[in-house]
């Protein structure tokens, strides 16, 4: 009697959630799938990690990023997706995957099927929610490339750690680096006007409505005028604001933030931004301006608690703002349909691109836009070039306005 063909067997459903899948932190794999006897396990040399199965090996890799939340969550997501796909669809341990398997996985990312097993029906569900799934939908070409880059890093590290014998992704064709395309994920001036109009139209009858309006207005002003990433808005505090006297003797406000890669950068806090900050703080009964190193988060939850909001919480607020802006569009017909699609595609990161695009439209020097957005690290020497910083502040002040 011939053995069954794995390709025609029903996929393995892991115990736990309704989908038959479980997040990696709640995942227990059977011995034939946990990687203890994976075909690509290193058989020679002394392993540099204690992990003896694929889940523990991935966790050892992720532990290196535990202090960088956004990076950790992004890397965990990609490793988790591959691990679940490997064990559920192929019925193979991750440490048995071949180059051909990973080519199949790359095609799977274009349209994860069956959708009822792999794709969430609602956005931003908790990882403990019974309706949790590894995917929110098909991945764009850029997201698929990013997934492969992350997984290549995982496999390379596991090889260096003496856990795997080889990296199956190292055989992938190396494409010549192409010039990055022009940014198109931003709001043009008409869509931006609709966003501002929707915030002005928010109800402000009850105390909760007034507090929510104050928070939304401040969050949008903060992200647009400073160009902050959403993770930076969640992680930094109002104590980052401070004043410094410029060459003319005028005291100018700045915002010091710690951002991507734990790099610190200095942002011009324009008069508009400081005015919006004051407006927001007075709503909470705080002093008009923060004191240096004050621990108050940049954005507060409703109810007056002095704890930071999560990135996911800030994302939901922004998405609702964009949805509300649909009702403020002054156009009809095909142009309206296009604008609605753009607003519903938009995310918090679009505000950062919008800030950069609008600064360029207003002829703000490219060097200053680069430094404001933190696209390149600031060298140690630049900390002493206050004259250049003052020019950047003045250029940003005159050329980048909210004009509420």
UniProtKB/TrEMBL annotation:
PROSITE patterns: CB, TYR_RECOMBINASE. GO terms for biological process: cell division; chromosome segregation; DNA integration; DNA recombination. This is Integrase. Keywords: Cell cycle, Cell division, Chromosome partition, Cytoplasm, DNA integration, DNA recombination, DNA-binding. SUPFAM superfamilies: DNA breaking-rejoining enzymes (SSF56349). It comes from Caballeronia sordidicola. Residues 182-398 form the Tyr recombinase domain. One of its GO terms (molecular function) is DNA binding. Residues 52-159 form the Core-binding (CB) domain. It is found in: Cytoplasm. Pfam families: Phage_integrase. InterPro entries: CB, DNA_brk_join_enz, Integrase-like_cat_sf, Integrase_catalytic, Integrase_recombinase_N, Tyrosine_recombinase_XerCD. GO terms for cellular component: cytoplasm. The keyword Metal-binding does not apply.
